[in-house]
Design a protein that fits this description.
The structure holds 3 protein chains of 3 kinds. By secondary structure, chain A is mostly helical. Chain A has 19 helices and 2 strands. Chain A has a domain of 206 residues. In chain A, strands 1-2 form a two-stranded antiparallel sheet. By secondary structure, chain C is mainly alpha-helical. Classes of the chains: A mainly alpha, B mainly alpha, C mainly alpha.
Chain lengths: 492, 226, 320
């Protein structure tokens, strides 16, 4: 419990301190320091869980599934903080930001990390909702940080659409509570996931189905599932680059985690022979997933802003993950868990590179970004390798997880492999068609290199490569334990 | 029909108040003056508080008294005050946000109420008997608030619609399960509070960037231009 | 219970109808007097409406040579339907022999018949004012009728019948209850009544300006006894709506057990209720300005919505 308390309190303390500090230099270093502490604390937590098994009491519950995401969140938070320090320093120097706004940025960054960690570690489904809404609130003002009309529009859309979407999720939670209150007489215990999971078979199927639909639509809005995705490309492209990185890399994962938790309850509730199709929850997820990755792959081709391009790629990958979790078997779930990790790492690395690319070219429009490899090899190669990784090239980790997904689809839903392959191919084509002129085109006259801290990006890409070549055994066992938890069967 | 008159008067009052909350949702949809919208939202909150107090005294769930008090302070006093204060500072308090076609909007709203009733029907039997019938109305309030969000063009009225959405969810919690666990209710209230404050800050940003609070003018980001 | 064979009950029914007809101009005059008091004007004499009608009856008819036979028959039809409607509305006695016909839908139908001929008569002579009045009237009614019917259906769902007398007796017999459906039905009926009887804010009964008149426009070409009959019919219609609102929702005082004392009590009760309603109507007309004609559909949409919410409340909240 101490590890958990430390993990949650460190971001809070960081937020309060950063809200008071005025010096941009010190804020940047403090942000980094706090993020490193968070990561170390979460590793400590993970060690405990891996050794002793799930623990937790009433309001918090840590098992192998969420501790994995906790470690991933704090890791990417840490590396993004490494990247953000010089990047935001540069933004201050070119007067794109004021010191007050930088204070807001740093404080909100830690607040955002806190809400995500709270959402991941809580046992109470109501608090999960509160934390996810809190994550939206913490990032709204960050999306509009640059105060351009476009960013304000993006932040407004983000706020309203995610707010409305998540309101559906609250209604779903209320219905879930309705079903739970019948089975668990103690009010305080009725929304606790661990308690519900134990008695899920007794939950009323009729109520659970409707609750699940509302929860899927609600949290699905935050995952970016089509047709609820409209806020995503705007919000991810208008904010400062470190925010795009964490939004794409982390928040989407947490929302998907929420859906998977609820799916576990619904599956157990529907299993006990009812009028409803026991696979209903999974089928709904699969449907949303297929639509998401197909539509996103098609939209990729139309993009003209570089960050929007990669936002649609995020939608596509979240669609793939939703699809995988929807299929449900151990193979697909293992693949989905691995995909969560490699997607986070690759996408945040890409966004960091993209941030530098737009700094070099002075714009985010892809038509005006040219000759990156010539101008600054670190950025150019980084972008190229990152895109290769995210498009699913071997030997990167994304290839492994997509391969697992493909195998699982061929096993259980053979006819769906065609749309899946088609989506993957379309996305690949879309990404590279835009990437090629940016990276390899002729270098414009006045373009020069900028200061680039390529360490975080390289760490991420290296990890993704390593995961693609050979997953270390402790990680594989970790994923396996989580798969066991989610599906009831282990893979390995 | 005859069994309605067998219900104790307090339960009849709860159902009447629920119907009045639904009517206030309709009224919110049709209002075009900004002041009137905010005041109608305050009325909706007041009706909800009274209904919650009645449910509390009828079922004996004392934590509902606290929820009612929280709703009163937050949704009837503080948030309307904050919205009026912001509107006055922005100079939009006496503005009109014309509803596009009130007749058709009201008809769609009626259709939504019927739709909500059919969605909720299979689960009505599982809720407590006092407020069972009001679950459909609470979902209808949520849907009508979303309709209001779509049909409005000014930021301030969209924010009122958003808050009315939260009202509907609170109402749903009261009618379905006699309130949520306290920690969740506090969390939700906190979120609503922070959201209102951020909205308030936002208005100034919007006004400073596009010189008006007509959200229709926030249309630079779309698939066609980007 | 109604005794169809007893001549006493038929006599009572007849006298109730006559009393109704005779009281209608008095009610209209009462409303006018209260308005004058509120607006600081000198009110008309107590029996002024009767004197107006008598004057009109004695005046010579002036007919346009483009008028068709319909123009001459219409006043009688309109007055006739009003008379029939007055005879079926429970005024003092809840159950009269005509009660079997006292169906709410029959009432709506009778009004529709009268209005149909009124509108035709307005268009008959070919003047622009008449046609304009008729078209405006038809627009308003097209929107007010559905609302009226939904109110009727709501009350029918609560009382399980559309017969006005049975509804009243049902309300008298059931314990005091707070029904949202009836609350909304009441509000909607008031709003629809304002529209159908042509009072402010929908139509100004005292105006003859082109921009503002609807009912008056249709009557513009009439004179003499025709005009008297039309005006009388309008008075009766207002009285019918007032009595409906009073007796359907607050029926206490009405006679169920026919004795002399009960009839006396009922007369006093209905006079009191109508007096209050008259004051409220006059106050409302003074406080609110007449709406622009193109805003009337929105007003009626609001009435329709309230009626619909009432019906939905009856289904959702009050059904078993």
């Amino acid at each position: 419990m101490i590890a958990l308390t430390w993990t949650l309190l460190i971001p809070v303390a960081g937020m309060l301190l950063l809200a008071l500090l005025s010096s941009p230099k010190v804020s940047g270093w403090l942000n980094l320091f706090v993020s490193i502490l968070s990561f170390l604390s979460s590793c400590w937590l993970a060690k405990k869980v891996l050794k002793a098994g799930s623990f937790g009491g009433d309001q918090f519950y840590i098992d192998t599934f969420n501790v994995y995401l906790i470690v991933l969140t704090t890791f990417v938070g840490m590396t993004t903080a490494i990247f953000s320090r010089p990047y935001m320093q540069h933004e201050i120097e070119i007067a794109r930001l004021t010191i007050t706004r930088l204070k807001l940025y740093h404080a909100s960054y830690q607040a955002f990390l806190f809400t995500m960690l709270l959402a991941l570690s809580t046992n109470n489904l109501g608090v999960l909702w509160v934390a996810l809404e809190g994550a939206t609130l913490a990032t709204v003002l960050l999306v509009s940080l640059y105060r351009t009309p476009e960013s304000i529009e993006a932040a407004w859309k983000y706020f309203i659409l995610c707010g409305v979407g998540i309101a559906q999720a609250l209604f779903g939670t209320i219905l879930l509570y309705l079903a739970a209150a019948k089975v668990i007489p103690d009010d305080g215990q009725a929304l606790l996931w661990s308690v519900l999971h134990g008695r899920a078979a007794e939950l009323e199927p009729a109520v659970m189905v409707i609750a699940y639909v509302f929860l899927l639509v609600g949290y699905g809005t935050k995952v970016g599932l089509v047709p609820l995705h409209n806020w995503l490309p705007d919000a991810h492209s208008e904010g400062p680059t470190p925010i795009s990185a964490v939004l794409s890399g982390l928040l989407l994962n947490v929302a998907l985690y929420a859906i998977v938790r609820v799916k576990m309850l619904t599956d157990a509730a529907l299993m006990s022979g009812t009028d409803y199709n026991p696979q209903l929850a999974g089928h709904l997820m699969m449907g949303f997933g297929v639509i998401s990755f197909t539509v996103a792959a098609l939209f990729l081709h139309r993009q003209r802003d570089i960050k929007r391009l990669y936002s649609y790629s995020s939608i596509e990958h979240m669609g793939l993950m939703t699809f995988a979790f929807g299929i449900g078997g151990p193979l697909a779930t293992f693949g989905a868990l691995l995909h969560m990790m490699v997607h986070s790492l690759t996408k945040s690395a890409i966004f960091m590179t993209v941030g530098h690319a737009s700094q070099i070219a002075g714009t985010q429009k892809m038509d005006h970004i040219r000759g990156l490899i010539e101008t600054q090899p670190a950025v150019g190669w980084g972008l190229l390798i990152g895109t290769l990784a995210i498009a699913g090239f071997p030997p990167f980790g994304v290839f492994t997880s997509e391969f697992l997904l493909l195998t699982a689809t061929m096993q259980s839903w053979p006819w769906l492999t065609i749309p899946l392959l088609l989506g993957l191919a379309l996305a690949f084509a879309g990404l590279f068609r835009h990437l090629q002129p940016m990276v390899f085109g002729a270098r414009p006259e006045l373009q020069s290199a900028v200061y680039v801290n390529s360490l975080p990006m390289m760490i991420h890409l290296f990890l993704v490569l390593w995961l693609g070549l050979s997953i270390p055994s402790f990680l594989a066992n970790w994923f396996d334990a989580a798969t066991q938890l989610i599906t009831g069967k282990a893979l390995l | 029909m005859n069994s309605y008159t067998d219900l104790p008067l307090i339960e009849q009052a709860i159902l009447t108040l629920s119907a009045l909350v639904l009517l206030s949702s309709f009224a919110l949809l049709a209002q075009s003056r900004v002041i009137a919208t905010i005041k109608m939202f305050a009325w909706q909150g007041a009706l909800l508080s009274v209904a919650t107090v009645l449910v509390a005294s009828d079922t004996g769930e004392h934590h509902l008294y606290f929820s009612a008090a929280m709703t009163l302070v937050l949704k009837v006093i503080f948030i309307p005050w904050l919205l009026i204060y912001q509107s006055r500072r922005l100079g939009i308090l006496r503005d009109f946000d014309a509803v596009i076609r009130p007749g058709i909007t009201l008809l769609i709203a009626s259709a939504l109420v019927i739709f909500c009733y059919s969605v909720v029907e299979p689960i009505q039997q599982y809720a407590a008997s006092i407020t069972r019938d009001a679950i459909a109305l609470s979902l209808a309030v949520v849907m009508l608030s979303m309709l209001m969000l779509i049909t409005r063009r000014k930021a301030i009225t969209q924010v009122v619609a958003f808050m009315a959405l939260e009202n509907g969810l609170f109402f749903a919690a009261i009618t379905t399960t006699q309130g949520m666990p306290m920690v969740v209710e506090l969390g939700v209230a906190f979120d609503v509070l922070v959201a209102t404050v951020i909205f308030g800050v936002f208005f100034f940003h919007i006004r400073d960037s596009i010189e008006s609070l007509d959200v229709d003018q926030l249309n630079r980001l779309s698939e066609n231009t980007k | 219970m109604v005794d169809y064979l007893s001549p006493i009950s038929w006599l009572l029914a007849l006298s109730q109808t006559v009393l109704f007809i005779m009281a209608a101009p008095l009610f209209v005059n009462w409303v006018k007097r209260i308005k004058c008091y509120l607006q600081n004007r000198k009110p008309p004499v107590f029996l002024q409406s009767y004197r107006d009608l008598r004057r009109l009856f004695t005046k010579q008819l002036v007919l346009s040579h483009t008028a068709s036979p319909l123009f001459r028959i219409a006043p009688y039809i309109v007055f006739g339907t009003s008379l029939m409607a007055a005879s079926v509305v429970p005024f003092i006695i809840a159950q009269v022999p005509a009660a079997a016909m006292a169906d709410a839908i029959v009432l709506v139908g009778l009004f529709a018949l009268g209005r149909f001929f009124l509108a035709l008569a307005g268009m008959d002579v070919g003047t622009s004012f008449g046609g304009m009045g008729s078209s405006r009237e038809m627009t308003i009614i097209a929107l007010a009728e559905p609302a009226m019917l939904i109110v009727v259906f709501t009350m029918a769902m609560v009382a399980e019948t559309t017969n006005l007398s049975t509804i009243i007796i049902h309300t008298l017999n059931s314990p005091l209850s707070l029904r949202p459906s009836l609350l909304f039905a009441f509000t909607a009926l008031v709003l629809v009544g304002i529209a159908e009887t042509g009072r402010i804010p929908v139509d100004n009964p005292a105006s003859h300006l082109e921009l503002t008149m609807i009912h008056e426009a249709m009557l513009l070409e009439y004179s003499g006894r025709h005009l008297a009959l039309m005006e009388f019919a309008a008075h009766i219609k207002l009285m019918i709506y007032a009595v409906l609102i009073a007796n359907l929702f607050i029926p206490w005082g009405i006679v169920t057990d026919t004795t002399f004392i009960n009839i006396l009590i009922a007369v006093i009760a209905i006079t009191f209720k109508l007096a209050i309603l008259g004051i409220i109507l006059a106050a409302g007309e003074t406080a609110v300005a007449k709406m622009r004609i193109f805003k009337v559909p929105t007003f009626l949409a609001v009435a329709f919505t309230i009626a619909l919410v009432g019906m939905l409340s009856a289904i959702i909240l009050e059904a078993d």
